[in-house]
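Sanity check

After download, print the first record. It should look like this:
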Amino acid sequence: MTLLVLGASGFVGQAFVRRRLPGEIYTSRRVISSDYVRFDPLTDNLRSISGIVNISHALLLFAEREPDCCAIDPAGTRKVNVEAPCRMIAQCSELGITPIFASTEMVFGGDTGMYAESAVPMPILEYGRQKLATEHYLLSKNESGLVLRFPKTVGLHKDDRSLFTTWLQKIAEHPQLLQCAKDQYFSLQFVDDVPVVVRALMRKRASGILHLGDGRRHSRFDLLSKLCSTLNKLGFDVPKLQEISIRDIEFPEPRPLDVSMNASKLRALIGMEPERVENFITVVVRGYGGP
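Expected structure tokens:
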């Protein structure tokens, strides 16, 4: 079982590089370091990658993940989020490689939350529609293929632009007031757990659709409150928090309210319990050195 990670220079891909295993191949559209092989999934062929014959699984991480970009330029972003991954999935099938597609919680409309894999996706965002189109292609073309729906993924590093580190950067600017949506809910995935989960699923020869994450329903406002409470206990000044609605924020497309996902199927398959969010907040604050 040997993994190829396409789009490994991004937030999730870097977690694989940090925990690299012998024989794994990590690609990027531009060569950042000797850890990466230059490969453009929009134009290149998998056969051009040295060592591709030794690969059993290919994880497709490359994407345009900004929903607003997809809403503003659906045709352009569709080339990245649908056309290119479908090309890679077809080439994987030709080479006998199992494709693993990184999809998203945004395939759901957000009406109910705690969605199971059996729930019917009804995306309200262009980004979600693009990801769902690629899901359908993979499942129709490759019976051994795997779709991983990612929830909101968070990390520990200052420049990773994930949820908690972004909040810490804002708090470091010493605002007196921070506004935060009270009515938006999602599950969490800790980025450094992703390589462990993916490699375990490879060993299990998992296929079909699986939901990643902690399988819990978190309020954005409650998470920020917990972060501020942890900072306060450690002696840092924190801003006052003001509750708003996600509907008060102008976006090109309205955001779904509740995209939390049930991850019990994943737990049953690999038996890995998620990190408690309170523990993660403490670790990220101490690692960050506070604001």
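If your output differs, re-run the checksum step. Summary of this record's structure: The mean pLDDT is 96.
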